[in-house]
Amino acid sequence: MSEAGTSAGPSGPVFVGGSPAPSTWRAGRFVLDLARPQVMGIVNVTPDSFSDGGSHADARAALRHCEALIGEGADILDVGGESTRPGSPAVPLDEELARVLPVVRGAVTLGVPVSVDTYKPEVMRAVLDLGADIVNDIWALRRPGAREAVAAHAGCGVCLMHMHRDPQTMQAAPMEGDVVPQVAAFLAEAAKALCALGVAADRIVLDPGIGFGKTVAQNFALLARQRELLAAGHPLLAGWSRKSSLGAVTGIASPAGRMLPSVAAALLAVERGARIVRVHDVQETAQALAVWQAMRAQDDS
Description:
The protein contains 9 helices and 12 strands. With 301 residues, it is of the alpha/beta class. Helix 1 packs across helix 2 (93-107), helix 2 runs parallel beside helix 3 and helix 6 (216-224) packs across helix 7.
């Protein structure tokens, strides 16, 4: 929804330790009301993403997919031009720009916030200049110049994600020990560093980085204890869609076959305080959340 008007959803703010979590996310042209969980639809403009690589690899197909996701209930579109699956190679800057810019140019006309999944500051500046609303960075703006690229923008939203090591090595040597306090501390520090550059706290969302350098048990620990991550004072984004951890506990080998486990994980994440869920299966997730919201409305009445 735009800054011109916001509306409250049926479920109230999530309370942690007696304090309400932030209820809005300022993201470029929009102020998102997080009283209603937001569905972020994934638009991969890549030939090699783990789940749908090559399906929307040209701009025309990607924009058709954007329109379809909005029709299915997507509140936000997340456009990515580089696969971050374990072991995936880095994409050269010019190639990522060629993949992403035509899609962003069209997507910003569709009436919903446009997020771009990138860690390169050059891509961040280019897409923000085109009118993108959100930078979604798996590196949490740790690359040189990335924080400055976001801080220079008047009001873009930003999602800071936790990743252990890098996409090439993260699953070869996952994290050790209790990951929840480690992830919480990392995200709190990343947000603090960005705020120190003048970025308002209501522009920042945090993502624990499910599958990015964690074991299956560690990923589920982050879900079970997700509310501990809210102590940083920023909304949470959960990205469980089609992840290999879901395959590990269900026996479903194909990422595309993990729709039902993905919806279940999204609901559990929302129940534990996530305000945005990043998903491939938008329609099914939106329908499940509608049922959850109807139940919550009766709880609140």
